[in-house]
Amino acid sequence: MPYREALAWLFGTQLFGIKLGLDNIRRLLAELNVPAPGQRIIHVAGPNGKGSVCAMIDSILRSAGYRTGLFTSPHLVTFRERIQVNGEMISETEVAAGLSTIREMVRDWEPHPTFFEIATALGLHHFRQQECEVIVLETGMGGRLDATNAITPVVSVITPIDLDHQKWLGDTLREIAAEKAGIIKPHIPVVSAIQPPAAAAVIQARALACEAPLRIVETSYEASPIALAGAHQKQNAAVAEAALHQAGIAVDGNAIERGLTTVSWPARFQRWNECTIIDGAHNPAGASVLAQTWREVFAEERASVILAVLRDKDARGMVAALAPIAAGFLLPAVRTERALPPEELASVIGTILPDVPVRIVPSTAAALLDLESTRGLTLITGSLHFAGEALAILQGNPDELEDCLQ
Fold first, then answer.
1. What angle do CA 382, 384, 389 make, to 5 degrees?
2. Which of 262, 287, 318 is the last residue of a domain?
3. Mind listing the pLDDT tens digit for each residue in 114-145?
4. What's the pTM value of the predicted model, to 2 decimals?
5. Is residue 406 part of a domain?
6. Exposure of 288 by Cβ count < 10 A (0-12 exposed, 13-18 middle, 19+ buried)?
């Protein structure tokens, strides 16, 4: 099965929707005989910062000489970004071969595995084939019933919790924290970032019930520079360092320094050029951190914000968080049907910032072209899906964008 055909089949499984539960993924992993014995897995959950923490852990481990597997989601431009070995994306040939195997395996399964279950199984299958020593595994949407939770890690990591994916995870911090804390397993060490009190109480209770040693990271990493911008990344780096320590994986200070000074994580306050920042902030907490980082880097200068927000996100909260740094908004119609229509987003902005200029444009390409003639600062943000679309256009390969709902 060629790569494009394999990918079309995989993306077609999104029609099965999101089914939270572990029976199918456990069956898949058992059939594939993964993960391999001896492979150590670091499991990371949390709506904000989890991808950055995963990238940091992976970069430090590679600097220390370990052969690593990194599984993250969503992708920005190509599905292959989700599965990396030693910093290299899985090849098209390997994706096609792995998905061909899984497709034949699950042909008659009822219920049929979901997109994310198959992607998780493909990643772990690839990591076994590539003989990875340590795997960094990022949860998808949740934690307790997330497909990645079918494994047993050497450490469980929880990054800052805020309201996100309420449709699936609950409407309160306590409910969402309970889902994220579901990755805590009996006697397995836990590392948590500083949490709001309601979330912290849930995590502490779950750790106590599981007799799992809990370390709460209350400091920031200050020993060396970090390639990712923002004070919050120093906190993420401290969480990454603590996770490796709690996992009992040997890394020295030089490896930590090298890993953090060279870590790359696109669309997280990514500086495309001197005037353009791309950031995948997709909820009010993420947008607030983005605005804070903007102030750290650009002081009082404001941005022309190219904004696209998904329908199921808190657009009002995001606009309010971006208000202190926004000189104006440009709202493109983007490729995903999940996006809030620009007209509705313009109405949201108008109620919060009635004096800030807002323009609607027909596409992301049109928005980027419109701003080419300006010399001011530009911020592209609102979702990782939108950041990926913008990156594909800026890189000159818009047709290579592999659209995906999850």
1. 95
2. 262
3. 999 999 999 999 999 999 999 999 999 778 99
4. 0.94
5. no
6. buried
